[in-house]
Amino acid sequence: MKYTLALLFSLFFVAVQANPISGLLERIDRGASRKFSIEIVSQGSKLQAPDSKNENAPDFFELSQAGDKVRVRANTWVNAAVGVNWYLKYYCGIHLSWNQMQAKLPAVLPRVEKPECHETTLTLRYDFNYCTFSYSMAFWNWARWEQEIDWMALHGVNLPLAIVGEECVWRNMLLKLGYTEEEIGKFIAGPAFLAWWEMNNLEGWGGPLPRSWYARQERLQRQILKRMHEYGMHPVLPGYCGMMPHDAKECLGLNVTDGGLWNGYQRPANLLPTDARFNEIATLYYKELTRLFGKSDYYSMDPFHESADDANIDYAAAGRAMMSAMKAVNPRAVWVIQGWTENPRPQMVDPMSPDDLLVLDLFSECRPMFGAPSIWQRKEGYKQHKWLFCMLENFGANVGLHGRMDQLISNFQQAQSSEFKVQSSKLSGIGFTMEGSENNPVMFELMSELPWRSSQVSCTTSATFREQWLKGYLRARYGYTSPQIAEAWQILSTTIYNCPVGNNQQGPHESIFCGRPSLNNFQASSWSKMRNYYDPDDTRRAAVLMNSVAEQMRGNNNFEYDLVDITRQALADQARVQYHRVIAAYKAFSRHQFDVEARRFLDMLLMQDRLLATRTEFRLGHWTEAARNCGTTQAESDQYEWNARVQITTWGNRTCADQGGLRDYAHKEWQGLLKDFYYIRWKAYFDALAAQMETNTKPQPDMLGAGPNSNKTAAELFAMALPQEVQLDYYAMEEPWTLQHNAYSSTPEGTPIDVAKEVCEKYLK
Q: Which of 207, 234, 385, 423 is the one with CA 20 to 30 A from 744?
């Protein structure tokens, strides 16, 4: 009898432990798992294994009541997590997102009076861009990754890119090929730049990596994969597509193409598929990958990324070689490839079997390639291949409110419509493909729900659906709403969160504070393609409305986060208006007014720094502390902090920053960075303009016909008389900051509501 009881207890314990939703609920709120009943069933209510999947059957979850517990039934663990999230949002007014992954559930949960069921045929739901792993996740530890995997489950992700520790595989492979540790250190990039090494864009920048880093990442990836598998997710591991160090021809005698340069960086070489050793090296790579991290049903490869066609490459042969090497590891494996600029090249993928390739339509909300009209339109889409409708949303992990609500909804409708019959028949799911995460939760929430609301989306206009959906989102986000909050978000959802068709800018409207100063400052980074599409008064009015009800929302974490973010955006937008007042005063040679306007601009910048100091998410310290914590020695911590500082400022050395155009690509409106980096640039620039104005008040002999300008033409003299741009060596100002090690804290200072109110009264009324 005792043996039987012990066995039953043991089996019960294993069953509880095997249910990942219990762990998820306990991490949300201790004791929460006792309030739910989680059941994994098939569509016909027949019990099935959590990791089994009939790919022809839709995914589903159902909410109902089971006595005093809320019952969540679903066909997979991930779908059960989606059901839990749906219940928390729409029954409890609890919204879990990056700024809040824990919550206090009601002592007695609201009852589900009538069963509610949602299903979707979009059964593949992908997450991450290679860039996300460097712009957002470069220095994450297991505690942060655990939260992210929970976020993924709650939002339906079952196909996450999993490339942590790829550098460990490469190090082992290159050692076996005869490379030395020193040579490997010159090839593999540093922590903040691994994504661009992995995408075949650069070598070595930010390295060399110490041995402790490899041990850390190997251990971390195993933890990540273990939890993903517990949820029944299908991690997408990095495959081999022929990348080799640029000197592989000299070192190994391989037949490789010259990688050339990428924005000033030496690119790795590409091993030609016709080389006799291609299969040997690919096999060695997969052997090391499998030994460290196991096999996968999906492998990610993006060969010849962001490169012009090369006549020396047989793309069809390259595709066959890469596919063959992958299939040798797992005959069922699927190649996952990004739909981005020239990729996937038709000559490479057209001959492939439709079941062997999955294409990520990376920027579906703006530049779809699946067949819908856009500057990247492919009229035949991806032909026989399955593909995912993806939202990119953010570039460079830049801070800023941004979205394409109507365009996202409309393009999602088109992707499933009869107008694109061939393409829609191959649509298999959705994807989050942001370069940077932890921003604009409203957009990621909308995207995550579209598959579960497909029928609702298809039978209404994008604007009507947006308005209806937003009402529910606000109730979930804050657990409460008011006319002022509703009006603020109505303004935002029709302006800054509704970037129109034809505007192809990459991510948010960039803050004037973050750009290198000039007489015609507009965008901060080189490739943002910014174009004005909303009135700065729109964000100002929204911020004023949010501030008008802030006091009664004090202590509401989601509201306080949004209050800071919206007020930040409004202040940045008003600073752009203020900047033009400064330049107008300079061009009008109004010396006193110039001083007044310049001082106000600089005061606004410092006020922005104070506002952002109130939230950990907007503090530079949350980034630099995480970087330093990765080190096991002072030298390692210093190297990782340098990586962190360089990435968000110069990005590269002088050549790559200036001539390559990489500087400020990953700029951030963060406390600490504003005060100690951007302020320095703007102050120096305004001082230089002021000095020039002072110079112009003194006698100018060259303009009297004497000196080196005496032989200039009338047109040249006229041009000289116009307000002149001052030339400053910005890189010389920027690089010293990247080398410093002054501490920045992640601990908030001040209270969001009080500082936001001060911003509102001083600059937004």
A: 207
CA-to-CA separations, 298 to 158, 164, 234, 329, 349, in angstroms, rounded: 12, 15, 7, 11, 16
> Taking Cα atoms as reference points, which of 513, 737, 733 lies closest to residue 606?
513
Distance between CA atoms of 61 and 637, rounded to whole angstroms? 45
pLDDT at 69 over 70: yes
For residue 190, CA distances in Å to 7, 103, 479, 667 come to: 51, 36, 43, 19
Helices (H), 419-461: 421-426, 441-449, 454-458
Beta-carbon contacts of residue 359 (< 8 Å; ≥ 6 apart) = 337, 338, 339, 344, 349, 382, 385, 386, 387, 388
Nearest-angstrom CA–CA distance, 411 and 415: 6
CA-CA distances (angstroms) from residue 114 to 111, 634, 696?
Answer: 9, 59, 78
CA pseudo-torsion sign 486, 489, 495, 501: negative
Residues 6+ apart with CB under 8 A from 345: 304, 309, 315
DSSP-assigned letter for residue 190: P
3-state secondary structure 240-279: CCCEECCCHHHHHCCCEECCCEECCEECCEEECCCCCCHH
Q: Are 192 and 646 in contact (CB under 8 A)?
A: yes
- Strands in 243-244's sheet, in edge-to-edge order, are 243-244, 269-271, 256-257
Confidence of residue 9 (pLDDT cuts 50, 70, 90): very low
Q: What is the pLDDT of residue 231?
A: 98
Taking alpha carbons only, the member of 118, 123, 124 closest to residue 61 is 118
Asked if residues 348 and 315 have their Cβ atoms less than 8 Å apart, the reply is yes
Whether the CA torsion 504, 506, 511, 514 is positive or negative: it is: negative
User: Is-contact 624 641, C-beta < 8 A?
Assistant: yes
What is d(CA 658, CA 645) in angstroms, rounded to the nearest whole number? 17
* Both tokens assigned to 746: 């992640």
Q: Cα(first)–Cα(last) distance of the chain, in Å?
A: 76
SS3 113: coil
Each residue's pLDDT tens digit, 107-163: 999 999 999 999 999 999 999 999 999 999 999 999 999 999 999 999 999 999 999
300 and 163 Cβ atoms separated by less than 8 Å: yes
Distance from C-alpha of 705 to C-alpha of 721, rounded to nearest angstrom: 14
Whether the CB-CB separation of 127 and 224 falls below 8 Å is answered with no
Q: Give the global pTM.
A: 0.94
CA-to-CA separations, 617 to 106, 437, 497, 612, 670, in angstroms, rounded = 27, 12, 21, 8, 8
Quote the CA–CA distance of 23 and 38 in Å, as a whole number.
Answer: 12
Q: Model confidence at 51, in pLDDT bands (50, 70, 90)?
A: very low
CB 433 within 8 A of CB 545: no
For residue range 352-388, list pLDDT tens digits in order.
999 999 999 999 999 999 999 999 999 999 999 999 9
Let me know: does 59 contact 120? Beta carbons within 8 Å: yes
User: Using CA atoms, how far apart are residues 197 and 194, in angstroms rounded to an integer?
Assistant: 5
User: How is residue 353 written in tokens?
Assistant: 């079997």
Q: What contacts 19, CB < 8 A, 6 or more positions away?
A: 38, 77
Window from 45-49, 287-291, 432-436, 743-747 with minimum mean pLDDT: 45-49
Buried b (16+ CB within 10 A) or exposed e, 555-574: ebbbbbbbbbbbbbbbbbbb
User: What is the separation of C-alpha 742 from the centre of its chain, rounded to a whole number of angstroms?
Assistant: 27
Longest dimension (CA), the chain: 113
| CA dist., res. 479 & res. 372, Å (int) | 38
Does the pLDDT of residue 16 top 60, yes or no?
no
Q: How far apart are CA 387 and CA 358, in angstroms?
A: 5
Give the chain's radius of gyration (CA, Å). Answer: 28
